[in-house]
Amino acid sequence: MSTYQPRQSFLTERLPVRGRLQQVLYWGDPARASETEPLTVLVHGWMDVGASFQFLVDAWRALPGWGERAFVALDWRGFGGSYLANGPTPEGDYAYVDYLADLDVVLDRLSPGQPVNLVGHSMGGNVVMLYAGARPGRIRRLVNLEGVGLPAGRPEQAPARLAAWLDGLKSPVGLKDYASLDEVAARLRQNNPRLTPERAQWLAGHWAHEVDGRWHINADPAHKRPGPHLYRVEEVLAIWRAITAPTLVVEGSETEVYQFFQGRHTREAFLERVAVLQDGTHKVLPEAGHMLHHDQPEVLAGWLATFLA
Description:
Helix 3 packs across helix 4 (123-134) and helix 4 crosses helix 8 (233-241). The chain has helices at residues 54-61, 80-86, 96-110, 123-134, 158-170, 181-191, 197-207, 233-241, 267-274, 292-295, 297-308, and strands spanning 11-17, 20-27, 40-43, 71-74, 116-121, 139-145, 208-211, 214-217, 247-252, 280-285. With 309 residues, it is α/β, with parallel strands linked by helices.
């Protein structure tokens, strides 16, 4: 099997952020970002890592005028290098609002006073939509890749949800480990058969680490625990209405994400939510599933370059 070679490899730094170390990945120098070529910040989804955007950055770098622009990706707390730097959370679980607070600190550090282009995938797409509504002046352009939200919560579900959270804190959780990096790559391709073997092998080295001959996913198992809060659609929509940045929402034409909800959340419901945006554009990427930045990075990079220009 041939080896995947990035067009430009990233550099990493671990920044102190709210009492923890946050791993940040750099393609290019954020200090050279300007009003005409602002910093583009990429945030990943659940059980993923910032390196997942390498294929998209490769495609961007090949476009005229994008070869020297600065891109930054985060490893969310509890994932990737951020997890390796800090270990498991002492609290036992993760609060969604902490992702917003971490992002706020990182943007203040890397782009003080300068609005950024903000791109989020899946869970990251949900986070950036909330952040852009809370901090509209910090965002120049906003991109949501397959961040479809969650089923609407109902008040009567609250007691059981809190009980499940309390029970979860008392229950051990774990993630499967693997005998080799090849097995990790195979797992990535099982999750997404469109991911090429070469790219899966490369990504596996950033998605897992070796301990005593076994490969372990770079993620805190506590992410599997249920959270204490219901998804309050009315509040989410109020925040989305406050977004002032032009917003591009992209779905994969063959996305599997709604299957996870087993009828409790639908594409039709998501599109109704998208309709509240002040300046929203919705597009469907052909021949792509939920991991659309892996499936069609060249086409997606072209779309985003046009939108972010």
